[in-house]
């Protein structure tokens, strides 16, 4: 088999594997709690998140909810520390929307007076 044929087959294989991985990832995201958030849910969530990152002590739980849609959740900050001149913290989320639950922990650092995921 020629080298160009082998390379073409390998490229095709990796493209198909990549597309499969993308499809699985998209299926996961389409069924996450946050994928069901309305604009109002996002506004409440983002306002709560900013308040928690700026003011809540490590380990304290802050809840949020939107009575209009039934979406709700809570956040718990932890591991506040300085890193490369920035204040960083971990933030655990638990959210429910459309009877779907989701959770995760993300690292945020404050740069130029704005919290960013790192």
From TrEMBL:
Keywords: Signal. It comes from the Bacteria. Residues 1-23 form the signal peptide. This is Surface antigen domain-containing protein. The lineage of its organism: Bacteria, Pseudomonadati, Pseudomonadota, Gammaproteobacteria, Legionellales.
